[in-house]
Amino acid sequence: xxxxxxxxxxxxxxxxxxxxxxxxxxxxxxxxxxxxxxxxxxxxxxxxxxxxxxxxxxxxxxxxxxxxxxxxxxxxxxxxxxxxxxxxxxxxxxxxxxxxxxxxxxxxxxxxxxxxxxxxxxxxxxxxxxxxxxxxxxxxxxxxxxxxxxxxxxxxxxxxxxxxxxxxxxxxxxxxxxxxxxxxxxxxxxxxxxxxxxxxxxxxxxxxxxxxxxxxxxxxxxxxxxxxxxxxxxxxxxxxxxxxxxxxxxxxxxxxxxxxxxxxxxxxxxxxxxxxxxxxxxxxxxxxxxxxxxxxxxxxxxxxxxxxxxxxxxxxxxxxxxxxxxxxxxxxxxxxxxxxxxxxxxxxxxxxxxxxxxxxxxxxxxxxxxxxxxxxxxxxxxxxxxxxxxxxxxxxxxxxxxxxxxxxxxxxxxxxxxxxxxxxxxxxxxxxxxxxxxxxxxxxxxxxxxxxxxxxxxxxxxxxxxxxxxxxxxxxxxxxxxxxxxxxxxxxxxxxxxxxxxxxxxxxxxxxxxxxxxxxxxxxxxxxxxxxxxxxxxxxxxxxxxxxxxxxxxxxxxxxxxxxxxxxxxxxxxxxxxxxxxxxxxxxxxxxxxxxxxxxxxxxxxxxxxxxxxxxxxxxxxxxxxxxxxxxxxxxxxxxxxxxxxxxxxxxxxxxxxxxxxxxxxxxxxxxxxxxxxxxxxxxxxxxxxxxxxxxxxxxxxxxxxxxxxxxxxxxxxxxxxxxxxxxxxxxxxxxxxxxxxxxxxxxxxxxxxxxxxxxxxxxxxxxxxxxxxxxxxxxxxxxxxxxxxxxxxxxxxxxxxxxxxxxxxxxxxxxxxxxxxxxxxxxxxxxxxxxxxxxxxxxxxxxxxxxxxxxxxxxxxxxxxxxxxxxxxxxxxxxxxxxxxxxxxxxxxxxxxxxxxxxxxxxxxxxx
Amino acid sequence: xxxxxxxxxxxxxxxxxxxxxxxxxxxxxxxxxxxxxxxxxxxxxxxxxxxxxxxxxxxxxxxxxxxxxxxxxxxxxxxxxxxxxxxxxxxxxxxxxxxxxxxxxxxxxxxxxxxxxxxxxxxxxxxxxxxxxx
Lengths: 913, 134
Known about the structure:
The structure holds two protein chains of two kinds.
Chain A: H1 2-24, H2 28-44, H3 47-51, E1 56-63, E2 68-74, H4 76-99, H5 106-125, H6 129-147, H7 154-185, H8 190-195, H9 197-202, H10 206-220, H11 229-232, H12 238-247, H13 252-259, H14 261-264, H15 270-289, H16 295-316, H17 319-350, H18 366-380, H19 386-400, H20 405-427, H21 446-464, H22 466-482, H23 498-515, H24 517-531, H25 536-558, H26 563-582, H27 599-617, H28 621-641, H29 645-665, H30 678-704, H31 711-723, H32 728-736, H33 738-762, H34 780-803, H35 811-828, H36 831-837, H37 842-862, H38 885-910
Antiparallel strand pairs in A: 1-2
Helix pairs in contact in A: 1-2, 1-5, 2-4, 4-5, 4-12, 4-17, 4-21, 4-22, 5-6, 6-7, 7-10, 10-13, 12-16, 12-17, 15-16, 15-20, 16-17, 16-20, 17-18, 17-19, 17-21, 17-22, 18-20, 18-21, 19-20, 19-21, 19-23, 20-23, 21-22, 26-30, 27-28, 28-29, 29-35, 29-38, 31-32, 32-33, 33-37, 33-38, 34-35, 35-36, ...
Chain B: H1 2-20, H2 25-46, H3 71-102, H4 121-133
């Protein structure tokens, strides 16, 4: 349980960091470093067991449906990485506490760094590829936050974005590769991939998966051409650069390639691709470093080069190459981490990182100088440091390769010569010789020199006792890649070998380059500036700009802000898509069997067509209302003629009310202006005609394919026997689909509330009704007839409601008739008179209607039946007939409809213009 | 008759589409009304048209007359008619409100809802009302 425990406690520590810092003040960094060092000890205790070849695995499910599991796997490779991550992490926490002392965002540094450490440890311990991906992204995000630590500087923000975009895009490619591997193998467990490596390599999709995962590794480990984000990431505080962008996170790509080495190294593609990527990166990073004068950028470019050499070694894939790659990774983490921390110490002391002016600091900061010297000598590859051993191993590997040993060795020689020079510039020049200007060095605190000194001394120790490292860590790590027992001998002295000769040559040439630093730095800078225009960084910038301007263009085109353009697109695409899908059906569109239309059918249809055309042409508002009314009434008559008496009644009542609605408000609406020019009108007309024609064709097609739904038959059969109703339409509304109707009346109530709210917003004092102003001339005829008509109509509406379940009528129709009657009264007298007449507010009617409807549904719950089950009294009640909960529901509908219509219309008529 | 009704609905659709393509807000409202008529006709026409046989079970019988009209589209249309009243009322109020606040019913002058506009009367008014609240 060590692995999940360490990750969870790391995250917990990240959360607790602010309190720890408040509690221990300046010693907060030390406390956290000690706690983390405790974790290091726990992992170090695993060394003997792992070195014996055992493997620790734990796992428990997380989201099984996604094949995502918390599965962890500790072997030699994971352990090597874990020790580096936690060990260097502890030192960086100690260092960062004083490096950033007094910084307002110090807690943020600790929290995010601890979070990163947990994520990075999780990454190398994950046994499940999806879990690995999650931790991978978590490291990208924490890296983003740490590069942008000084988020008020634009450069830091830009660098943070660049790193996030490049590594994030690579991460997505990697995820796609994982998914392909899942498709091939049916699992996301890395160990299962390794076990079925043979089958995976046979699969035609395997090269695609490999390339995608390689892209992820390349972006994370800053391989050419994605290397440019790493030097820019030097915007981060130096401890972050040392930790994330040199010692650990950037090695995640190398880790991924090493982890999947058993899966992919059998592919023919593996060797050439991976070693070429590594070689190009190695050369590019080394040569680019020669143009830098900033300490951190020098180190950054050589880090790129070092990562390239690790990738190249994995690409070569021989047992010796794998062993060398892992040994080199360890050596690099030690010396490069130390040199970064040294650079930070120098920067902290004199606020300069320019190698051209630095010098003579050795007296003021002797311990830092010592650490710099030790680390620099290891980087330069001098004995007795571990760097020397790994460099010899690299030469040995290259000389033994089967393909192009001469070329490879030559290229690597050039790079190593550059490294010797860089290690001199970073490790020696700041501390010796004469400075370019006068410096006043701050005091060097212990916490700034101890961490780099520890790292550098470890490099020395590993060089002096290489076999201890080989037996403890390197052997089991190599076996994790090669899957077979390995014998590993490491020693400083191999005798007089070609490798020793190459080493001597490297150092000699490097010293020459070191001495010529003034010319090299200036010349290199000029050269690389000239080349920058075609560099990948520039391409990245251009690409980013291109994407942004494309997005802006697309937004301008699609989101034009003109409603009619949106509608035009919707209609045109609907026509287009529908046309394609019904294309084949068009041939069989025989006109449906034609009954000779009846005389009055033709008249009604003609009225509809003429009125519809006229509506589009007229500019008179009154004419528009009249046309709409005639369309509505014609449709109502059609309903009546073709067996929809309920529909006809509702349509008649509704049409009347809509006309009243328009009459009330139309003269407060803007006039009908002709705003569009002639061309848009023609275009719109053509589109509209096409849309209408499409609908006609569709309707004909539908009527040609009569639906054989059993629904109508079911309702017809069950209406009387199960629901005690003879009017099937009404029974559907209040019983079979009662829940829909409940929803509908609720929506209507919300619409009425919306109308009321919007109109009350207008009046400064909502709810206050206008006083009766001057008496208007009222129609005597209307007033007289209203006196007799209104009571009759209201009584009639009750009648419609009661009989609705069995004959034409129902709650909707009844409610509309009652509302029409009451509005007639309001028009004949005044809205205020109607208010006086009504016993309750219209909105109370709406509310009580909703409650009645809801209550009628709840009754069945008391009887132990589901919500809205119809329950009926055995005996028929006088006048009303059979009584049951659906009838009560219909009463609720009636009340809601009356209430809504009156509420809306009264609000309209009382609105002060 | 099915053909005639299909043509009538097609004309209503065409008129409705034409009207919602206008720039005047009120015309868009008219377009919505026309479209709801058209949709009701479409629903009605989707079942076969039967004259004179409503889906009602006559007294003394257990089943509706043979060849009765399909009750399902009728139930759909009935609710649609009532709903469209609510929609119409709400749309009218919305239009009226937009007209009051912006002083125009030309949609071309209301593009700021979709596009970032630098200064517009609407924005100024909002800013003013915000200051007034202070």
